Amino acid sequence: MSKTSNNNSIFKVIAASSVGTLIEWYDFYIFGSLAFIISGKFFPQDNPTAAFLSTLATFAAGFVVRPFGALVFGRLGDLIGRKYTFMLTLLLMGGATFLIGCVPSYDTIGYWAPFLVLVLRLLQGLALGGEYGGAATYVAEHAPANRRGYYTSWIQTTATAGLFISLMVILITKSTLSADAFDAWGWRVPFWVSVIMVFVSYIIRQKMHESPLFAKAKAEGKIVKNPLKESFGNKYNLKFVLLALFGAVMGQGVIWYTGQFYAMNFIQKVCNVNSIQTDSLVAIALLMATPFFVVFGGLSDKIGRKSIMLAGMLLAVLTYRPIYKNIFEITDIAAKTELADKRTVTNRLENKEDKTIIHYQFLSYYEDGTIATKDSVVTINTVNKAETVKTGYSIQLDSGNKWKLIWLVFIQVIYVTMVYGPIAAFLVEMFPVNIRYTSMSLPYHVGNGIFGGLLPMVATYLVTKAQTSGSPDWYLNGLWYPIIIAGISFVIGLVYLSRKNRQVHD
User: Do 346 and 412 sit in the same domain of this protein?
Assistant: First the structure.
């Protein structure tokens, strides 16, 4: 077979695997992308900060169960095959995502709302726990060994691409609908859209063939009867599972979620940049940086996986605080000069049964082009004249400052591409075919699901606590979590990962 024919064949495999994986990431991250608005729909609003933290905790729950999904579906993948296992995970993920978009709000069914969302979120986590290992293994087992980093890095782009598409669908939905319509029901549309994408992906995956290496191992009777026991009961293999987790994937996980999810939450929640501008600037940064997954994946074939991944970790540890300090200073209106003569106030009166609702909007303009919007909603009960006030605050940056933030997010995503681009090939090469799906899935999903998935909630909690206590530079406190975890992983990887570690050649 010619080289061109081989290339066409492997890219068909990559395309078929990537479409489904991308959609599963889209389904998984649409919840995180809408975390701010979901907190107001499924949780009681007497304490908005607690509601937002509860939403992040529900988001994190999907990550916590990912290792269990890795065990369940990894075992199936090593027993019955890669293809049918990740077709099952695709359907499970798509169904759970669609149903999240159908759950009634807290105002309608009370505490059943957060409970149902939590259950569906756990199903999503189980499905994703089985998806990634299957897709990465499937592509790796079709790729030539000397190009494995390059070809598997295409799978690595799907997580970022899924997040990018989720942001784009949200932006399109927001732009198409009025603000009231989006708040009332439009936020559900991105969840519903996933059903169409899952159906298309399922049709594509039906036509895929089983991995040639797995088919060969099965034909030769080399499939183990108990992949879990062989993977984790065998001390020799367990050593590599633990080394992969603590020396690489743990650090990669926190860097992934800091550079993409925490950056988005920080800009919107801590810096108060409005949601549309936040989504757009993060989407632009993701689009610019995504090709570097393939760049660093291909480079790892030439100079090794370890050096690139550890360099990404070290850069993140050293520069996170300066980057986020810069982001905060760019968006801090307390340090900007307000144009007092341009300040405007508008109001709108609304009568609802026995209530009078007054909507106030205060617009402040600043010398650098930033616009701050403060919304106040005053509700007056005409029976006893009781009054409640709700306020909201957001800013819109001028073009120059917006591009500064894009650049600062882009740098973080470059770190993500360095640690994440080579990781699939790194994990695949540590484990033999007959236990590969199980052995590589667990450290990957513990590192990303536990250490990485808890990051938004833990970091937001640390920031909130520091702000309440009046700590200086309170907004940087959330970074201690990824800095410490990535630092530990860097040291372990530097000391214990070497060319002498087991490398499987198929």
Answer: no
Q: Give the per-residue pLDDT at 4.
A: 47
Residues 45 and 184 in one domain: yes
Q: Burial of 252 by CB count in 10 Å (0-12 exposed, 13-18 middle, 19+ buried)? A: buried
**Total domains, the chain:** 2
- In DSSP terms, 255 is beta-bridged to none
Residue 383 maps to which CATH number?
A: 2.20.25.110
pLDDT at site 81: 64
Orientation of helix 112-140 relative to helix 3-33, angle to 10° = 170
What is the spatial distance between Cα 336 and Cα 191, in angstroms, rounded to a whole number?
39
Mark whether 259 and 380 lie in a shared domain. no
Report pLDDT for 301.
Answer: 93
Domain containing residue 252: 3-333+398-496
Q: How confident is the model at residue 2 (pLDDT cuts 50, 70, 90)?
A: very low
Q: Which of 124-128, 413-417, 418-422 is predicted with the least confidence, judged by mean pLDDT?
A: 124-128
**CB neighbour burial string for 76-111, b if at least 16 within 10 angstroms, e if fewer:** bbbbebbbebbbbbbebbbbbbbebbebeebeeeee
Indicate whether 348 and 451 sit together in one domain: no
| Average pLDDT of the segment spanning 356-364 | 85
More confident residue, 81 or 203: 203
Which of 349, 365, 396 represents a domain boundary (last residue)?
Answer: 396
Q: Is residue 451 part of a domain?
A: yes
